[in-house]
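Re: the request from the purification team.
They wanted to know what the chain is likely to look like in 3D before they choose a buffer screen. I agreed to run a prediction and write the result into the notebook, where they can find it.
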Amino acid sequence: MYRIGKEEIEEVAKVIESKNLFKINDALHETEICEEMMRKQFNVKRSLLVTSGFAALTSALVGMGIGPGDEVIVPAYTYIATAMAVVAAGAIPVIADIDETYTIDPCKIEEKITPRTKAVIPVHIQGFPCDLDAIGKLADKYGFQILEDACQADGGSFHGRRLGTIGAAGALSFNQFKIISAGEGGALLTDDDRIYERALIYHDASAIAFFGNQLDGISEPQFCGSEFRTNEIAAAVLHRQLEKLDGILADLRKNKAYLTGLLKKKYKIGASNDLEGDCGTTLPVVFENEAEARAFAAKVGTGNYLPIDTGKHIYTHWTAILEQRGALHPLLDPFKFPVNAPFVPDYKSQVFPVTLDLLARTDFLLVSPDWTEEQMQKIAYTVL
């Protein structure tokens, strides 16, 4: 979270004073307002506000018809929730290496494709756009769907189009550590009515038919799902955060560009698939080896880290996935489903050398939208 203040406090106060905190109400309709704002801001036909990025990913996969017998390719560098969403849908995650942009390598995707590949999840990690042109060509060639994980890239873009709106569906996250935040939350974006209708039913299956007119115009039959329903307090915060999104992104990008200009004379800056669309949250500085990266990080001090140290963002730390425990009860565990079992990967034996090497010799400088030029000059001075 970058900017929060009196606007959010006042909006939450209105909700509390209305005494209507439930999503469906006759008062402020904050959830509906947020969904309409996202449809306009992201230029999509459908949006669905949910409780988390994981909820958005899982609802999207269910909406896409992904399930047992299917494989979904995910990058080796992403938060574990990406892979867990695949398992939650009953499918098997297949891991692929990243490239020098820190995002999934299209060439490695192609190596992993089988007749069971039904989807690929490109993850715009740290706000870095994936190469959606190359992935889109593969999707056309092999017939899989694209689900964009834009949970760390709220509002970013690729060739002028917002991340999360280019594939069949996209997922956003609004937890404490994202560009905009409601403390927790997420959203599904899509232009596909069928995906939306299925996700709508799945995300709140126990209540969708009993509150308001949420099923008006919905043709998909009801089925048992989950409960990822949001509330009006979280939506009130998000309402004001969405208003701030583009201003935050503009300042992040401006400051990243300025700091890059100071550092690139001496240091190698990480590659990008679309520097203008990059969210600007993170400036990657690349070194020949880990020792050099750690020495640089030590000079900078606070506000930076080596991505190799980020635990569950790296496949080697996905304990539940590596140990193939997809559910507590074995009969509900997708790794043990008869239709899945013959092709479950031996995750523990897999090695993704580019991911581990690149993350170990990179230092991520975390950019603030509120830095002054003087503050950035001071940061650069410590390492120049």
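For the purification team: The chain is about 35% helix and 15% strand.
Please add any questions underneath this entry.
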